[in-house]
Design brief:
Two copies of one chain form a homodimer. Chain A has 237 residues and is mostly helical. Chain A has helices spanning 2-29, 36-42, 57-76, 85-102, 104-113, 121-126, 134-147, 158-179, 190-205, 212-216, 222-225. Chain A has eleven helices and no strands. Chain A binds a DNA duplex (30 and 30 nucleotides) through residues 3-4, 7, 10-11, 14, 35-37, 45-49, 51-52, 56-57.
Chain lengths: 237, 237
DNA sequence: TCGGCGTGTGAACGCTGTTCAGTAACCGAT
DNA sequence: ATCGGTTACTGAACAGCGTTCACACGCCGA
């Protein structure tokens, strides 16, 4: 079945060429520049050829977007090494904003444009896995922080905690991207704003003094603990 | 000069008809639905007629956008009555998110799409006036809060303080708009998330106990101090 | 060698924003 | 009353967009 294999490989190669050309256009000239005709021209195919590999433009873009999520996650998984959940969250916030400002076009697509992508099976497979789902990563750290008694009472809901923190860093990132260089406002540096947001949020969210358990068991072995429960699950709309 | 007056008035009327038709399409069917041809059809003119009133589509949209900024400001100026700057900021945050979720299409255009509009003279005139410039409104409250010693040291920079708070509520608002109903995440209610963000930020930004000066000189001139209560109460509502 | 299948093409459709020559109405001056 | 210029609008066109479809070419198994 060597010939069939080759066919499949060639097909995959063309598909990759399409994706790479689109990614190039997208990263260098922004979302609006990604036209099927330009992509086709870049790979020296007729525009209609793309439809043999993607249902429509939206699917092409969604595929690009999914790959970008992967890269974002790849940027944050090293942080899983950090034992202290609060510190992990802090570093996560910085990494998140850094990703956003180094990949503004991709970030725009992933979190600001949001072409209402319904998740395919591929995406569903990685849901809730902290190593493959960025949101699960935050929530996991949040759960852990709550379990360790580090979080003040009103925020002892891992979902709410994660959503609040995410909203904070997303606010910093998306404002930077949307308003970059806007002369209306005397902007502080993006680093200062990131630090300010993360610092203020954590100061407000965390139990002062590091919380009770922080003193009692300073080493929180990350692998085994897993720190279940304490989420006050389910309820609280 | 009655005839010239009439001409000018008629011209203005057509301009308004264009704007209203566009606003209608925009609010009901979203940004993508605003097509010059559809606008023209709605007002029973030829598409090219619009170009007699607006340089291009971008200018039309920008004009709509500017009017929306006015409405946002109109929503927040009543809050100027609130004497306590922290409480004012808190209420401002809620009003901001409420505006965003009741005018999602407009919010998208104003703060997420952001068609890089360079400010015209009209916009420049209202800059820095807290009664006509939303950002100046926050910054003014921030300045006041700092002056009253209510803010913790790292955030004693009115610009940074305002930018941080804005980023926080913008994060909540824009995530709600972009991800509304996304099944990937177990969303808490938008009210809970708004309260969580504002509560956490203020808890982190504010001097605990209301700050030194809050005790030393409880009246901060600025007619009729009212209700500096509830400032350090955290998130609970 | 033949037939079928998969892949890519070229031309078209309907949509978009935008331009431009032409027209018709109006108004002040002659 | 008529002329000439200004103004507001039209109709047709252009280029570009995503998308579709009949068609052609080449590869592969029979």
């Amino acid at each position: 079945m060597s010939s069939a294999d080759r066919r499949a490989r060639e097909r995959q190669e063309v598909r990759d060429k399409i994706l790479n050309a689109a990614r190039d256009l997208f990263a260098t000239q922004g979302f609006e520049a990604v036209t099927l005709r330009k992509v086709a021209e870049a790979i020296e195919y007729a525009p209609a050829a793309i439809y043999g590999h993607f249902k429509d433009k939206e699917e092409l873009v969604r595929t690009l977007c999914l790959a970008d999520f992967d890269e974002l996650v790849r940027n944050i998984i090293p942080l899983a090494e950090i034992g202290d959940p609060i510190e992990r969250i802090r570093r996560l916030g910085h990494a998140y904003v850094r990703f956003a400002i180094t990949h503004p076009n991709h970030y725009r697509l992933m979190f600001m444009y949001r072409a209402q992508l319904e998740p395919d099976e591929d995406a569903l497979a990685r849901k809730d896995d902290p190593h493959r789902d960025g949101y699960a990563f935050v929530r996991h750290a949040a759960t852990q922080a709550i379990a360790e008694g580090r979080i003040r009472e009103p925020w002892c809901d891992a979902e709410l905690l994660a959503q609040t923190f995410w909203a904070g860093v997303h606010g910093v990132a998306s404002i930077e991207i949307a308003f970059k260089g806007d002369p209306w406002i005397e902007w502080r540096s993006i680093e200062a704003r990131t630090e300010s947001m993360i610092g203020a949020l954590l100061a407000g969210l965390c139990e002062p003094g590091g919380g009770p358990k922080a003193r009692k068991k300073p080493m929180a072995r990350r692998g085994a603990v897993k720190a279940r429960s304490a989420t006050s699950k389910g309820a609280r709309r």
